[in-house]
Structure formats: structure tokens, C-alpha cells
């Protein structure tokens, strides 16, 4: 840790001085609390600002003192050169001791030494200097230089030059220079200390204000960690770093909250699904077990009673088989296995579905119509798994047959549209971008419709809306869930519209408009719609499947 505080260029030398075995010991001497990385960011920023300011002030003061000393020494050198000729002509009485006259003329810290040709000191001006001047052991002419004071005082500045056969040395003390430097150093220290204290207080305030958004984020993060996932970080400004960080955190929190909510909802649906599936399987298993016990106890002797018992067992086993088959199909769709994709004609699928429905329930009215009333029925080709798409159409028609009265009319429409936002409809499946061409299979009825409180859940697994959609209808609540899963696997969506069903006039599907290979004539009833059919509540399921690039949708 100590080496980290030392510049990189010096570290190799430090490593060479400190023994290798002592480095871990030095690292352990510093408590973890006092290590730089363990300090709060606020403290580190304030200390860094103060440290940088102190280093800057130290360099500035040092440079100022050096420059000032050089300037003052230059002035002393000028003083040494100026009185040279006058000092050379000093009278003899000055050498006798007229110190006051010399000091008044040249200053208290000025001395003149006279040497003969052999370098011996002849006289000193003033004769009794106080304080005494320096001792020049070997005076030589040249530029000014500095010598130490023999008494440990301030150094002296010396200028030696020739005067006739001898030498003259002008000597000036640097005591005033040292005094000015000392006073300036004290002033610099006091001012620098005050500046550092003031700067530290201002830096602490500025850092505190600057880190306030981060402090709020920290508090918000603590509340979120405590379980309050609805909390959001206050955004200071979109152009600031804390503002951008807060906005990014809010987006992350929104996604996290949505993921947590979706996960909780998924777990709840899974628990409900397992409970419903267990309940659905338990009922036929209980029936089979009851009939088996009845037979074992002799309650079903050979004959009609035995036949009825075996039929009931077969029916319950068939129900279990269908339920398990639907569950397996949903599991396969959840695994997103590749589909057997090929061109599929939705008109042919709808026609075959209507034909099968009329064969199962001959007395029901099931119609085929174009999605656009003014357009004729034409093939609509989409890429997909034909078996799965046929299952979608069959489930929708079977759902309408099972949950509408016998006199209700069911209409299957086929066409093309440009995908738009579904609006208030209940939607399941993938997202289709606006303007995407899509093939449509629409199944509407004039029955009682879906209650508004149940509509948002019709595509959930093992969900049945109301008493009218009970186990007696033969459904387990998986038909529409299978529809949604298959449509999602094809990249499409299915919509439920509970608005009143549209009445289809008898001329909407003229016999010549139906392709004979797609729809037998008997599947297109020609009877008129009852006058009140348009006012029926009904339910409309619309499946949108992405078209191939060759199909052009009719604008709707």
C-alpha cells in the first residue's frame, strides 16, 4: 500500500531498499480502516483536492522564494559594484575607525577590505566592524560570490577587484535578504494554511453537493434492497453524470420490477396450472377407479350394466388422454421446437374446419365469409405448419360450438389485413409491427359472449370462464391456450373482441365465390341471418399470421 502512494519511477529503488520479507509486514502495519481504498469517496475527493492544492501552493511558494532571493542577491551585487571607486578613495581616518560615517555612506552591513600585492589584508573599512565581516583566505578578482559567516550568521556576498598594485574586496551581508525571505516564508505558510483550510471547507461543501445525487441513489438502493421495488432514483439532470446514471438505474429498476412481477405471475400461473391439472386428472381417475371398484364388487353384472360401466371407463380414459395430449402439446410449444413450415391456404383450412364442424353438429349454423364484405373469397397463403394451423381453426370453432346456444350462428372469415395496434382487444401471441401484411382467420358468434371480467384470462391454461364453461362441456380450458401458443410460435397474434358481432348478410358469400375445391356447397348455408343477430353480444376471435411477400393485403 505504501508503494502505491509513491511515484512509479521511484518504486524500483524503494523495492531495492526494503527487504522482500518486510513488505508484507509494512502492509500489515497500516490498519485496513486507514488504507486509501477503504475511505469514503467524499473523504478521498476532499483530501485529494487539499493535497493537490497544497502541492500547488508549495511549488508556487518555493518558486517565488527562489526568484525573490535571486532578485535580492542581484540587487546586493549591484550595490557591491556601485561604491567600488568611492571605497577605493576612502580617507585614512575612515580606516582609523569612523564607522558611523562609513555606515551612513554605504550601510551597516557593508565592508571594504584592502589587500596588498601579496594578498595580505592592509586595512578594513570600517576598522572596528560590528558585526565582524567574513575572513577571505584567498581573495581573487572575479564575479560576486557567496561566503559563509564565521560566526554562523547570515552569509556574505563578496566582490573582489584590482586597485593599482593591490586588491579591494567589497563585502555585503545577506542578512536582510535572509530576513526578507524568512518573513515571506512565514507569510506564505500562514496564507497557505488559511487557504488550505478555506479550500478544504469549500471542497467538502462542493463535494457534498456534487455527491448528493449519489447519496440519494444509495438511500434508494437501500430501500429497494429492503423490498420496496417501487422506489425510483431521483434524476438530477439528464446532461449530468449522476442524472444519466439515475436514468439508467431507473430503466434497470423498471425492467427488474417487470421481470420480478412477470416471474411472480408466472409462478402463480404455474401453481394454478399444476393445481388445475391435478384436479382435472383426478376427476377422471376417480371415475375410473369408482367404476372398477363397482365391477370388482359385482355391482356391474354382465349385460347392459357392464356395457355402461365399460363405456364410462372408456370415456374417462379418453378425457385423460386428450388432456395429457394437450398438456404435451403445450410443453412442446413451450420448447419452441422448429415447425414444419410450408405454404398453407387459410381459405382451405377454414373450409375444411367448417365441413368437419357441420359433420359433428349437423344442426348448427356455421358460415364462411370473406373478411371484407365487398370482396370475394380468395386463397390466402401463409407460411406455417399446416397441422398446427388447422388445430387453431378447429379449436376456435369448437370453442364457439361448445359455448353458444344451438340457435347461435358462427361465422368464419378469411382475408388479409395490415397489422395495426389491437386497441382494447385482449391479445395473446407475438408482436406484429404496424403495417405488416397478415393473413386472418376470424371466428365470431352471436352467443352470450365472454364476460368482461373473464376476457383478460381466456388465453390462460386450464381457465374456464363462469359456470357455463364447465367440465360438462367436455373442455379442460386448454383449447384457447393452445391457440395462443401455436399462433405465437408462428410469429402471429390472436385477439378477442367482445363487442357485438357483425351480422353477415346472405349475399356476403355467393355460391360462385367459394372455390369448389376449398369448400363444398353444403357448408355455405344460404339462409338469412335473424333480424336481431347484429345486436347479439357474441365473441370474435381473430388470428393474424404473417404473410409471405407474395400476398397483398386488402387495406382495412
TrEMBL record:
Keyword Zinc: no
Alphabetized GO MF terms: phosphorelay sensor kinase activity
GO CC, any one term: plasma membrane
Enzyme category, top tier: transferase
Top-level division of the source organism's lineage: Bacteria
Residues that span the membrane, as ranges: 45-68, 184-207
Record's subcellular location: Cell membrane
PROSITE patterns from the UniProt entry: HAMP, HIS_KIN
Annotated Histidine kinase domain residues: 276-514
Gene3D superfamilies registered for this protein in UniProt: 1.10.287.130, 6.10.340.10, Histidine kinase-like ATPase, C-terminal domain
Region (Disordered): 503-537
EC number annotated for this UniProt entry: 2.7.13.3
Catalytic reaction annotation: ATP + protein L-histidine = ADP + protein N-phospho-L-histidine
Predominant subcellular localization, coarse grouping: membrane
Record field: compositional bias (Pro residues): 507-523
Keywords per UniProt: Kinase, Membrane, Phosphoprotein, Transferase, Transmembrane, Transmembrane helix, Two-component regulatory system
Protein name (record): histidine kinase
Species, as recorded: Thermocatellispora tengchongensis
Amino acid at each position: 500500500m505504501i508503494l502505491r502512494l509513491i511515484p512509479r519511477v521511484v518504486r524500483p529503488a524503494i523495492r531495492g531498499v526494503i527487504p522482500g520479507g518486510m513488505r508484507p509486514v509494512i502492509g500489515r502495519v497500516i490498519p485496513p480502516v486507514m488504507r486509501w481504498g477503504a475511505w469514503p469517496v467524499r473523504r478521498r475527493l476532499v483530501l485529494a483536492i487539499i493535497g493537490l492544492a497544497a502541492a500547488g501552493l508549495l511549488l508556487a511558494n518555493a518558486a517565488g522564494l527562489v526568484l525573490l532571493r535571486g532578485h535580492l542577491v542581484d540587487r546586493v551585487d549591484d550595490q557591491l559594484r556601485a561604491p567600488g571607486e568611492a571605497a577605493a578613495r576612502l580617507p585614512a581616518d575612515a580606516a582609523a575607525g569612523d564607522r558611523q560615517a562609513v555606515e551612513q555612506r554605504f550601510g551597516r552591513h557593508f565592508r571594504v577590505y584592502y589587500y596588498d600585492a601579496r594578498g595580505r589584508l592592509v586595512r578594513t573599512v570600517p576598522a572596528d566592524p560590528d558585526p565582524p565581516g567574513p575572513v577571505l583566505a584567498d581573495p581573487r578578482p572575479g564575479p560576486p560570490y557567496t561566503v559563509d559567516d564565521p560566526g554562523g550568521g547570515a552569509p556574505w556576498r563578496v566582490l573582489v577587484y584590482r586597485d593599482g598594485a593591490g586588491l579591494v574586496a567589497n563585502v555585503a551581508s545577506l542578512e536582510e535578504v535572509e530576513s526578507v525571505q524568512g518573513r515571506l516564508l512565514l507569510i506564505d505558510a500562514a496564507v497557505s494554511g488559511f487557504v488550505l483550510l478555506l479550500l478544504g471547507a469549500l471542497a467538502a461543501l462542493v463535494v457534498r453537493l456534487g455527491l448528493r445525487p449519489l447519496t440519494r441513489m444509495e438511500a434508494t438502493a437501500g430501500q429497494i434492497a429492503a423490498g420496496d421495488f417501487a422506489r425510483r432514483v431521483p434524476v438530477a439532470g439528464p446532461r449530468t453524470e449522476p442524472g444519466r446514471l439515475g436514468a439508467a438505474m431507473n430503466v434497470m429498476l423498471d425492467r427488474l420490477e417487470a421481470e420480478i412481477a412477470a416471474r411472480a405471475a408466472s409462478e402463480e400461473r404455474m401453481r394454478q396450472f399444476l393445481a388445475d391439472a391435478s384436479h382435472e386428472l383426478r376427476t377422471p381417475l376417480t371415475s375410473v377407479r369408482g367404476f372398477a371398484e363397482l365391477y370388482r364388487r359385482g355391482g356391474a353384472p354382465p349385460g347392459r350394466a357392464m356395457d355402461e360401466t365399460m363405456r364410462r371407463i372408456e370415456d374417462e380414459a379418453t378425457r385423460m388422454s386428450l388432456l395429457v395430449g394437450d398438456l404435451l402439446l403445450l410443453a412442446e410449444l413451450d420448447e419452441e421446437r422448429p415447425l414444419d413450415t410450408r405454404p398453407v391456404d387459410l381459405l382451405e383450412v377454414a373450409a375444411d374446419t367448417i365441413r368437419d364442424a357441420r359433420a359433428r353438429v349437423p344442426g348448427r349454423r356455421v358460415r364462411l365469409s370473406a373478411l371484407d364484405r365487398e370482396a370475394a373469397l380468395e386463397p390466402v397463403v401463409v407460411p406455417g405448419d399446416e397441422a398446427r394451423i388447422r388445430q387453431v381453426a378447429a379449436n376456435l370453432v369448437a370453442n364457439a360450438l361448445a359455448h353458444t346456444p344451438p340457435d347461435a350462428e358462427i361465422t368464419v372469415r378469411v382475408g388479409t389485413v395490415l397489422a395495426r395496434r389491437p386497441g382494447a382487444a385482449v391479445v395473446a401471441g407475438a408482436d406484429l409491427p404496424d403495417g405488416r401484411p397478415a393473413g386472418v382467420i376470424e371466428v365470431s358468434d352471436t352467443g352470450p359472449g365472454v364476460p368482461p371480467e373473464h376476457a383478460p384470462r381466456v388465453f390462460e391454461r386450464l381457465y374456464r370462464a363462469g359456470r357455463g364453461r364447465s367440465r360438462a362441456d367436455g373442455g379442460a380450458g386448454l383449447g384457447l391456450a393452445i391457440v395462443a401458443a401455436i399462433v405465437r410460435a408462428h410469429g402471429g397474434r390472436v385477439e378477442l373482441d367482445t363487442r357485438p358481432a357483425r351480422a353477415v348478410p346472405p349475399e356476403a358469400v355467393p355460391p360462385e365465390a367459394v372455390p369448389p375445391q376449398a369448400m363444398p356447397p353444403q357448408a355455405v348455408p344460404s339462409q338469412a341471418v335473424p333480424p336481431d343477430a347484429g345486436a347479439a353480444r357474441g365473441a370474435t376471435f381473430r388470428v393474424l399470421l404473417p404473410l409471405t411477400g407474395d400476398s397483398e393485403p386488402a387495406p382495412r
